[in-house]
Amino acid sequence: MASASSGAAAFSRLVDRTRVPDPTLQRHAVAAFFRHLLTLPPPLPAAAHDGISSLLASPHAAVAAYACASLARLAVSRTDLLAPDEALPFLIASLSASPSPRLASCLVKAVAALVSCVLRSGPAGSRFPPHNHPFVQALASGADGARAELSRQAARMVAEGVDGVVGFLRPFVMFAVVRKGDAAFARDLIGALAAAAAAAGKSDAAVPVLKLLGESLLHFGRGDGEEGRLWLSSVECLVDAYVILLRKLAHAQRPAYDAQASSVELLEILLSQCSLHHQLLGMSCAVLRLSKYLFSVQKDLGLCYLPEISGVLSSLSCILGALEFESEQLAGLKLLAFLIEWRHENALKTNEVVHHVSEELLCVLPVINLVISPSRSVKAVASHVLSRFSLLVLELPASCSSEQQDISMVHHISRPTFILPKLVQHLWSQSSSGFFFTKYAICKGLPESAANYSEANYWTDQINEYLSVLAREKLTLDGSSSKTMSSAPISSLVSSVVSVLVMHPKLGTSAARSLGNLGASDSKLGMPLLLVILFYCKIMYSNDNLSANSLLSLLESLPSLATHGFVLPLALQLISPMLKKDAQS
C-alpha cells in the first residue's frame, strides 16, 4: 500500500513539472515522465495510466503533443508495458475532449502509428471491430483538424502497403460515406485513397482498395444536389485512378486482368445506381461519358473485351429507357455503339467464334424507342446502332445450334445485373427444359382460378398465359371498380428478353405472340414494341433463310396492338409498301 502511494506521488511530481510555462522545460519534463515508465516492471500501474491521461489533457499544447508522440513510441517499443491497442483509448479520449486543430492532428498521427504497428504484428483485424474502430471513433469525435489528418494517414497506410489495410479501412470508409452532413470529407477521403492506390502501381495491392471505394459509392450520394455533385467528383477520382493503374500495368507488361475486371465492376455499379436512384439520374450523362472514356483507355492499351462487360450492358439496357435529355441519350448510345464495335473487333482479332447470345441485344427495345426521338442527332446514332443490331440478330440462329457453352456465363450470378443476361442465355440454350423456377414464379402471380392451366412448353407461352389472365382481370375491373388488381404489371425488362427470343428457331413463334400481348397490356410499351415487331419483320422479310412461321406470327401480333389508337394508321403506313412490293413481284 505504501509502495503504491509513493509511486502515485512520484507520478504526480513528474506531471507537476510539466506545468511550467517554458516549452523547453515542458518537453524535458514529459521525457522524464516516460523515462520513468521504462524503469517500471510490466504491467504499468493505475497511477501511470492516470499520469498519461493528465499529460494528454494538459492545457499546454506542447505538453499534450509531445506526450502523445512519446506514448506512441512507448507502445511500439515496449509492448510488455503498454500494448498498442491498450494505448489507443488514451488518444481517442483526448480527441473527444475537443483539442486544438494542431493537437488533434498530432493525436491522429499517433493513432495511425499504433494501428500500423498492430496490423504489421499479425492478423489483428479482429481487434478493431466497427463499434470500437479507432479511425471511426476519431472521426466521430468531431475534433477540428482530425478529419484532414485521418484522410492523410489512411492514404499513407495504403501507399506503404500495410498488411490488412483494406480490412481495417472498410468500417472507416463506410462510416464516412453514410455520415450525414460530411459528404465533402467522404469525397476527399475517396480521392486520397484512390490516388494512393494508383500511385502504388501494384495490382494486388491497389485493386482491393479501389474495389472498396467502388462499393462505398453504393451508400453515397443519396442526399441533396451538393452531395450528388460530390458523388460524381468521387467517381471521377476513381476512374482516373483506374486509368493510371491500367496504363502502369500495360507499360510494365504486367497482368492487368484483375484491375480491368475491377474497373468494369465499378462502371456496372455506377450505371446501376443511376438507374435505381432518381437523385443520381441527373448524373447519368457524366457517368456514361466516364464509362466510355475508361473503356476507350482499355481498348487503346490493347486489353481484351471482358465477358464481365455483360453486367454493364444489362445496366445500360435499363438506364437507356429512363434518359430524357438529348445529351444523356447521345452519351448512352455512343457507349453502346463503342462496346458493340470493340466486341466485334476483339472477336476478329482473336478469331473468336460466337456461340452465345450477344448481351447487346437486350438494348434493342430502348434503342428502337430512341429511333423515334425528335432529335436528329439521337435518331442518327440510334439508327446506326440499330443497323449493327441487324447483323447481330442474323447470327442468333447459328448460335442456337452450337453445343458449346458460353464461357462468360459459366460463373454464378454474383450481382443483380447478371440476372438478365443469364436469363436470356438460359432461355436460349435450354428452350424447353429447366424452367421450374420461372414457372413457379409466374404461377404465384396468377389468381387461383387460373392456377390449374395446362403446363406450357416454353417460357414465352407462360408469359402469354399470364398476360391473358391480366387482360381478363382488366375486363373484370372495368365492371367492378371496388375490386383491386392482384397481378403486377409486366416490366419492360421482360419485353427486352422476349424481343431477343423472337429469332429463336423454337421459341420464335411464341415470342412473337408475346410481343403483341405485351404491347397490348401496357400503352407505354405499345409504340416501342410495334417498332420492334416491324424491325424483326424487315429482317425476316429480307432473308429467305429465316423461319417464315416467325414472320407470320409477328404480322399476326399486330392486330393486338390496335387497341392503342396511334398504332393502326402507323402500321398501315409502314406495311403498305411491303405488300405492294410483293404484289408487283
Question: Can you walk through the features of this model?
Answer:
With 585 residues, this protein is mostly helical. Among the domains are: 180-303; 430-478 and 491-584, no CATH class. It is built from 28 helices and no strands. The protein has helices at 2-16, 23-38, 46-56, 61-77, 84-96, 101-120, 134-140, 146-160, 165-178, 183-200, 203-216, 225-251, 257-276, 278-281, 284-300, 309-320, 326-350, 364-371, 376-394, 396-401, 419-430, 436-445, 459-479, 492-501, 508-521, 523-542, 548-557, 567-584. Helix 11 (203-216) runs parallel beside helix 13, helix 12 packs antiparallel against helix 13 (257-276) and helix 21 packs parallel to helix 24. The chain is elongated. Residues 402-411, 432-442, 448-456 and 481-489 have low confidence and may be disordered.
Report a brief summary of the structure.
This is DUF3730 domain-containing protein. The chain contains 28 helices and no strands. The protein has 585 residues and is an all-alpha fold.
List low-confidence stretches. 402-411, 432-442, 448-456, 481-489
**Most strands sheet:** none
How many DSSP helices?
A: 28
Q: How many β strands by DSSP?
A: 0
Beta-strand level of the residues, as a percent range?
under 5%
Could you tell me the mean pLDDT?
Answer: 81
Radius of gyration: 32 Å
| Spatial gap, N to C terminus | 117 Å
Question: Percent of residues in helical segments?
Answer: over 70%
Helix-strand string: HHHHHHHHHHHHHHHHHHHHHHHHHHHH
Task: Quickly give the structural class.
Answer: mainly alpha
The outline comes out as elongated
